[in-house]
Design a protein that fits this description.
The complex is a heterodimer of chains A (433) and B (482). Chain A has a single domain, classed as Amidase signature (AS) enzymes. Chain A is built from twelve helices and 13 strands. Chain B is of the alpha+beta class and 482 residues long.
Chain lengths: 433, 482
């Protein structure tokens, strides 16, 4: 395969990129010459990969994540590494150690997070497609806030090998793009079995989106239109669902009672896993080096104190506490029970309906600095975390605006039925063009 | 259990002798290579790398579990054991916690009270080895440590026993038996440095137990336990209390030393490894066929070769030794077994241990020749030992050892047959040179004859047969008359 280089010199007004590859090479293939941005928590051989954290500054992975290998193989040009909340911990991309990304639709607002850089790079017209990662909504939230399309695939559908883990049991790498077609094309490239990821399924994605949704049964959960959801956002989404009915779908109300515990289950699980995943950043093998003249435990403390941001430290401490002896049963084990209840609720609902629809986010994009207390930021994840807890596919597609800002319609489907949520999003998108 | 009785339980970590590491494809054959040469993103714990379970390691572990009569769990699980240490690449060790690969089981050892004794097992689980710290520098030039991750990710099994051993000797027997079993299963190479590590829990009945960590040799176990028992008994004798604590064994000094209290306060925050699916062995475990194990081989040696229980136990106690014995007697099992068993179990092992040599130094074919010479009466036992020593010493000097027959010829060790001149002359000489001994013998001191036998042996350089010589000497003295 011959490689060609292109020139990529974007005017990055929104600080979407942490690293720009200005002469990316590409080959022939499905994505020949397409510039694709990659979130900075996905390992790229020879390109600095920091997770937007000071603790990984200067770290250049010696290997490609499986999805990056697939991208290169498909001829894509890796345009650069996009900004994010440090290690994916946030809903605004303000928690980047290298400064926030701005929302191209309104630079006074956040792009959402944690894949805010990827969303802004697309919404700002710098790239056609990008990879994001979604642990509790990190693809869908910025997609909704920036007015683009983002898919969180079914757990196991896309290899996580090379994704710098934040919460392994919840997260997936997924495609983001301006259109459903772009997202579907990128999904074709990145999905499939990878022997390096023991949780991956042998289920390639070869689907081409289809607009026919006649006879489709859509569940509308009360909880997605209840307390905490901005009425103007809810109204936009209801109208979009009405559009789906016009296209031949039927809707039925449903309920996910386990959502009362979903957020707690999510934050316990992800902080526990994070406290363990992030323990390896000790300055011994990569990143800023530990002071070897000091006893190792002092040196480790120093590196970690200087390297991690406030939100990361908070989550590490929460997770460490929740896993400690005497508390494990009270937190981690309980969270897994709650998680199983979420799965059960979805199984019950999906026995009757094909997909579930609702808003992606309860509000439009926040103003910069608006979510200053962590708890109110955590609450914003309430509509996205259920899909992560259950491992099911969920897509966010733009469905209008509220107060001039984009609103996302979220479609969730059965495990491994990513094709179906793509079709519903595509049908909607094509109907409103 | 009597008051003051010693109670010992062991946790034994063994490296499984697989070709590749537990969670990646790196080679396990790292010992002769430079540091950090057998590493990859996975065993270095690079961000984003994920573990993939080595099925061979699980198969090996299941072989062990089956051989040790354990119940293999239908579904087991890997967990993360979280702690910070510079040799631990991910800051957690992937191990098994509340759902181990196998539970229960036992190992039969030769107990202190004679006969077979069952040591019950608690569990067997699979885990990865951490890297290794290499300490550099000294007090003057500043100490620092380098990390070598070649060992990181080597598959280990941890075998946990119940507190069923009652002495350091029983602990050593347990380890020896365990090692033999693992070797018979072809899952373990005890010759590899650091392939076995032991933590021992030890208490005097009625007192707290102490965990002694960091025992890295078979001999070390007996030494550490003996030290620890003496220490604990002395404390109790002085009216002190034995604290429940963790101690490290300092091999070079042969003592145990209290670990800093901080190290005992570890909270490992175990939770299931999210990057690995639960391990379901299903019918896999049923398909595992075990080879002949030490106990079965011991019984066979007794039945097939007529070995005594002790000889059979010794010979089958090490895979190499058992194989060696069978190779030596193969040309003529009926004719050679009895002599070969004694000569290997009693003589050869002693001579090898004395020289700190392994069995590899001896060629079984050459040993067969030696046994044949002994069997034919061509050489005496004493000469046989001499031949063996020559061979081993030549090995030690890295020379090509001579054949037994060549040594016999070169050193003129062939037994002097019957009433030949040389022996008669030596007897006459010995009597003449030692009139006192002659007198003593006549006075009824039997020891005097032994002295004279020794003198004759010296003069004939051991070629004379001792029993025959006894008879001839007595005869010669009798002939001299009063």
């Amino acid at each position: 395969m011959t490689e060609t280089s292109i020139v990529f010199e974007p005017e990055d007004r929104y600080h979407a990129f942490l690293t720009v590859c200005d002469r990316p090479v590409h080959a022939g293939g499905k994505l020949a010459g397409v510039t694709v941005a990659v979130k900075d928590n996905i390992s790229t051989r020879g390109i600095e990969t920091t997770c937007a954290s000071k603790i990984l500054r200067g770290y250049v992975p010696p290997y490609d994540a499986h999805v990056v290998e697939l991208l290169r193989h498909a001829g894509a040009a890796i345009a650069g590494k996009t900004n994010m909340d440090e290690f994916g911990m946030g809903t605004t991309t303000e928690n980047s150690a290298f400064g926030p990304t701005l929302n191209p639709r309104d630079t006074g607002r956040v792009p959402g997070g944690s894949s805010g850089g990827s969303a802004a790079a697309i919404a700002g017209g710098m790239v056609r497609m990008a990879l994001g990662t979604d642990t509790g909504g990190s693809i869908r939230c910025p997609a909704a806030f920036c007015g683009i399309v983002g898919l969180k695939p079914s757990y196991g559908r896309v290899s996580r090998y090379g994704l710098i883990a934040y919460a392994n049991s919840l997260e997936q790498i997924g495609p983001m793009g301006k259109t459903v077609t772009d997202v579907s094309t990128l999904m074709q490239v990145i999905a499939g079995y990878d022997r390096h990821d023991s949780t991956s399924h042998n289920k390639p994605y070869t689907h081409t989106p289809c607009v026919d949704i006649k006879g489709l049964k859509i569940g509308i959960p009360d909880e997605y239109f209840g307390e905490g959801v901005d009425p103007s956002v809810a109204a936009v989404v209801r109208k979009a669902i009405g559009r789906l009915e016009e296209l031949g779908a039927t809707t039925v109300p449903c309920s996910i009672p386990s959502m009362a515990y979903a957020l707690a289950a999510y934050y316990v699980t992800c902080t526990c896993e994070a406290s363990s995943n992030l323990a390896r950043f000790d300055g011994v093998r990569y990143g800023p080096a530990a002071d070897i003249k000091k006893p190792w435990h002092e040196a480790f403390q120093e590196v970690r104190r200087a390297g991690f941001g406030t939100e990361v430290r908070r989550r590490i401490m929460l997770g460490t506490f929740a896993l400690s002896s005497g508390y494990y049963g009270k937190y981690y084990a309980k969270a897994q029970v709650a998680r199983e209840n979420v799965r059960k609720d979805f199984r019950r609902i999906f026995a009757d309906v094909d997909v579930i629809a609702g808003p992606t986010m309860p509000t439009i994009a926040f103003r910069l600095g608006e979510k200053s207390d962590p708890l109110s930021m955590y609450l914003a994840d309430i509509l996205t975390v259920p899909a992560n807890l259950a491992g099911i596919p969920a897509i966010s597609v733009p469905c209008g605006t509220a107060a001039g800002m984009p609103v996302g319609l979220q479609i969730m489907g059965r495990h491994l039925e990513d094709e179906r949520v793509v079709d519903v999003a595509y049908a909607y998108e094509q109907a409103v063009v | 259990m009597a008051e003051g009785e010693v109670i010992v339980g062991l946790e034994v970590h063994c490296q499984l002798d697989t070709k590749s590491k537990l969670f990646c494809g790196c080679s396990t054959d790292y010992r002769s290579d430079g540091p950090n040469t057998h590493v990859c993103p996975i065993c270095l714990g690079l961000p984003g790398a994920m573990p993939v379970l080595n099925k061979r390691a699980i198969e090996y572990a299941m072989r062990v579990a089956k051989a040790l009569n354990c119940a293999v769990l239908h579904e087991s699980e890997f967990s993360r054991k979280n702690y910070f240490y510079p040799d631990l690449d991910k800051a957690y060790q992937i191990t098994q916690y509340d759902k181990p690969l196998a539970e229960g089981g036992y190992l039969e050892i030769e107990g202190d009270e004679g006969g077979e004794k069952r040591v019950r097992l608690t569990r067997i689980h699979v885990e990865e080895d951490p890297g290794r710290l290499v300490h550099m520098g000294n007090a003057e030039r500043g100490r620092y440590s380098l990390v070598d991750y070649n060992r990181a990710g080597i598959p280990l099994i941890e075998i946990v026993s119940e507190p069923d051993m009652r002495s350091p000797r029983e602990a050593r027997k347990f380890l020896n038996k365990l090692r033999a079993t693992l070797e018979y299963l072809s899952v373990f190479d005890s010759d590899k440095e650091g392939s076995l590590r032991v933590d021992a829990n030890i208490s005097i009945k009625g007192s707290e137990r102490v965990e002694v960590k960091n025992i890295t040799s078979y001999k070390g176990v007996e030494k550490a336990l003996t030290f620890e028992i003496t220490r604990q008994k002395n404390m109790l004798r002085r009216g002190q209390r034995v604290e429940r604590e963790t101690r490290h064994f300092l091999e070079a000094r042969g003592i145990t030393q209290s670990a800093r209290s901080k190290e005992q306060e570890h909270d490992y925050r175990y939770f299931p490894e999210p990057d690995l699916r639960p391990l379901r062995v299903g019918s896999w475990v049923d398909g595992i066929v075990l080879p002949e194990l030490p106990d079965a081989r011991r019984e066979r040696f007794m039945a097939q070769y007529g070995c005594s229980l002790n000889h059979a136990r010794t010979l089958t106690g090490e895979l190499k030794l058992a194989n060696f014995f069978e190779k030596v007697v193969a040309p003529d099992p009926k004719g050679l077994s009895a002599l070969a068993a004694t000569w290997i179990a009693d003589t050869l092992i002693g001579e090898l241990n004395y020289r700190d040599m392994g069995l590899d130094a001896v060629d079984p074919g050459s040993f067969t020749m030696l046994v044949r010479l002994l069997k034919a009466g061509t050489i005496t036992d004493k000469s046989g030992v001499e031949v063996l020593r020559v061979i081993l010493d030549q090995r030690l000097r890295h020379e090509t050892p001579e054949k037994p027959a060549e040594i016999v010829a070169r050193l003129n060790l062939a037994r002097t047959g019957g009433d030949t001149g040389a022996i008669t002359a030596a007897i006459e000489e010995a009597i003449n040179e030692n009139p006192k001994a002659l007198e003593d013998y006549r006075a009824g001191k039997a020891g005097a004859l032994n002295f004279l036998v020794g003198q004759v042996m010296k003069k004939t350089r051991g070629r004379a047969d001792p029993a025959e010589l006894n008879r001839q000497l007595a005869e010669a003295i009798r002939k001299r008359g009063a």
